[in-house]
TrEMBL record:
<dbReference type="InterPro" id="IPR029044">
    <property type="entry name" value="Nucleotide-diphossugar_trans"/>
</dbReference>
<comment type="subunit">
    <text>Component of the translation initiation factor 2B (eIF2B) complex which is a heterodecamer of two sets of five different subunits: alpha, beta, gamma, delta and epsilon. Subunits alpha, beta and delta comprise a regulatory subcomplex and subunits epsilon and gamma comprise a catalytic subcomplex. Within the complex, the hexameric regulatory complex resides at the center, with the two heterodimeric catalytic subcomplexes bound on opposite sides.</text>
</comment>
<feature type="compositionally biased region" description="Acidic residues">
    <location>
        <begin position="448"/>
        <end position="462"/>
    </location>
</feature>
<keyword id="KW-0963">Cytoplasm</keyword>
<comment type="similarity">
    <text>Belongs to the eIF-2B gamma/epsilon subunits family.</text>
</comment>
<keyword id="KW-0648">Protein biosynthesis</keyword>
<dbReference type="GO" id="GO:0005829">
    <property type="term" value="C:cytosol"/>
</dbReference>
<protein>
    <recommendedName>
        <fullName>Translation initiation factor eIF2B subunit epsilon</fullName>
    </recommendedName>
</protein>
<dbReference type="InterPro" id="IPR051956">
    <property type="entry name" value="eIF2B_epsilon"/>
</dbReference>
<dbReference type="InterPro" id="IPR011004">
    <property type="entry name" value="Trimer_LpxA-like_sf"/>
</dbReference>
<dbReference type="GO" id="GO:0031369">
    <property type="term" value="F:translation initiation factor binding"/>
</dbReference>
<dbReference type="InterPro" id="IPR044123">
    <property type="entry name" value="W2_eIF2B_epsilon"/>
</dbReference>
<dbReference type="InterPro" id="IPR056764">
    <property type="entry name" value="LbH_EIF2B3/5"/>
</dbReference>
<dbReference type="InterPro" id="IPR016024">
    <property type="entry name" value="ARM-type_fold"/>
</dbReference>
<feature type="region of interest" description="Disordered">
    <location>
        <begin position="448"/>
        <end position="468"/>
    </location>
</feature>
<dbReference type="Pfam" id="PF25084">
    <property type="entry name" value="LbH_EIF2B"/>
</dbReference>
<dbReference type="InterPro" id="IPR035543">
    <property type="entry name" value="eIF-2B_epsilon_N"/>
</dbReference>
Amino acid sequence: MSAKKKEIITKENAVQAVLIADTFDDEFVPISDNLPHALLPLLNKSLIDYTLEFLSLGGIEETFLFCCSHVDSIKNHINKSVKNNEGWTLTMKVNIIVSESCHSFGDCLRDLDAKGLLRGDFVLLEPGTISNIHLLPLIKKHNELTKQDKGAAMTLILQEAGIGSIGRCPREDILIAGSSQNRVLFHKKMGQSNERKINFPLEIFLENPSVSILHNLKDTHIAICSPSVLPLFSDNFDFQTKDDFVRGLLMNEEILGSTVYYHIVRGSQFGGAVTSWRMYQALSRELKNMWIYPLIPNTKRNKIAKKDSVIGEGTKIVDSIVLQSSVLGDHVTVGKNVKIENSFVFSNTKIEDNVTITHSVVGPQCTIKSNSKITAGSILGNSCVIEKDTFVENCLIQANKPEICKESDRLGNKAYRLKISGEEEEEKSIKDLTRKMSRLHIDNYYESESESEEFSESDDDALSYTQSPAPDDTKLFFTEVIDSLTRGFEDNLLCDNLILEINSSRYAYNVTVKEVNFNVIKAILTMSLRQSVGPQYYSYLSRLLSYFAPVLKNYIRNESAMIDCLQAIEDVATLNEELKDKWVMFVLQHFYDKDYVSEDAILDWFSTLDEKTKFHKQVKPFTDWLQEAEEASSSEDE
């Protein structure tokens, strides 16, 4: 067989992917005015570099990169990557498709359908996707699925993620009802709805012997598609997004004759997308902690500083700077007595003396003059100049003067407050307000419960909201431990695997050994409280503790860990006052009999308890028994 003929066959059978480069919204304004979303620096490496590397490692041989804006910048970046022989260029071909007439995700897919470039099943990625998911097995599984169900159009790739997980954005929360074959029966974006209750179609329960209701998932923004997906978009012009597509197929399943399935990835496989500043910071942290391995930032260019910060190439900091949980781009100049916390400073920016930057984003080529303060979710666009002694809080700043500009919006010759479209309208929907406010949440902020409630009728009251309290990393770690242990117990997983998951969570949230010991014990005891107290309760508790014996042994290794364990018992009992005295006695007896805690540790810990508390009274009978047993043993020895 000739080499030319072999090359043609390989191309015909190539595994293909479609990557949409544009977001078609103003989420990243004003930075996106000059910098395309695909080239947004993530730990000083362009977002698209992570995505193409993921596709290459996942087995994709040909990718169609669809661009509608900033085309020249993206083309130049791709050509430079090819010239430099970047890793993905060795195994994958990238074809750039340009169409400036497209105004939505759906328009791009309709244009691709008209061009007839795709030949079979393909991987569909939304803008800003980063992942380490193994794609080839999923493509194969989808192909087998289409043989059983000729109407199978799409398989959504979802990831298991508990509430509070850093990579799970409340605005993107989804609720899915699925069949035993993982066919999507119901799909709803909870984060984009004001509804207080969910109405499920009755027929999904009548027509299916079993239905799973899933809310512990997040969208990876990856889908495996059949060739029928593009014609379906072409035939239905109201399909503007992937969610529109899924919702439309579920509503018109009998008419369109197409179905949607889902696949859940677990363990070390990760998927997500930079869809907002909140997710930008979340994915930065995931990359920094090597949670998306083998995708990693450019370690040759970046320097990891103290207090969880990253410094780009050519950037130097002085001893007087306070730098915490931040990323500095390449060739950033930093003056004396500067404080930068929970922020992102892009390349070629100059920061003069005595400047404070907290919870904000500073775009490329900006100048922040001395004694200025930028805080509370402010975002500065390209080439802004903040004059001396300027205070910037909770707003968007651009360098160019907008068409409509009040004098109060002018902060300098190259700094103007940017009005969000529709901001001055008298009536605002809760969805618009939530989107605008969340735009400024670039720290690890989780929307409070009040955000799901109705806003005040007063616009001033609604707009006075800035940001919700920062979550405690230890609490997030505890939540993940609960999720891991619950799943392990229900699915009868090996405790060794659970220990690996817990240790991974520990490094992700940077908690101390003491906090790990305390929260693991607390998590196991808290799980026991989910079983209603009754005649069988203590047999259930005993079974739970026996099952997790390897976990307990792993984390209670010394006297210090014993104290952590006893403090966890105290914490659970104190927070659940309805627990009977017998519960405390039972748990202490179990831990003592299994040699998890020693007599000396128990007595030392007991001596620190407040005698006036109910918990002290609950523990005292057990410590009295220990002391009596010790005295009796001493008498026998004499």
